[in-house]
Design goal:
Residues 49-76 form a coiled coil. It comes from Friedmanniomyces endolithicus. It holds the Pfam family HSBP1. This is Heat shock factor-binding protein 1. The protein is mostly helical. It is built from two helices and no strands. The longest helix is centred in the middle third of the chain and has 56 residues, at 27-82. It is rod-shaped, with a radius of gyration of 27 Å.
Length: 83
């Protein structure tokens, strides 16, 4: 995360955007930086979404396995009680 903050700080310094001074940065430079930041956010969101979906799929598989194990145990218990 600190690398991301460093990247943002470097971009802001490159554009000479501060609270104290008026910026004479070309609007196209600002648009390029904002576009780059939006692309970074989009990429991170896609990665996070993929990881989240993968973890949910894994949890679902584990729950299915647990349910099958419980059902098999219940059926075995019923069979043992009948004999």
């Amino acid at each position: 995360m600190s690398a991301d903050n460093a990247t943002l700080s470097a971009q802001v310094k490159k554009l000479n955007i501060t609270d104290d001074t008026a910026s004479d940065t070309a609007p196209s430079d600002l648009v390029a930086v904002v576009d780059d930041l939006l692309n970074q956010l989009s990429s991170k969101f896609s990665n996070l979404s993929g990881e989240l979906i993968g973890k949910m799929d894994e949890m679902s598989r584990r729950l299915d396995n647990l349910e099958a194990t419980i059902q098999a145990g219940n059926e075995q218990g019923r069979a043992d009680n009948e004999t």
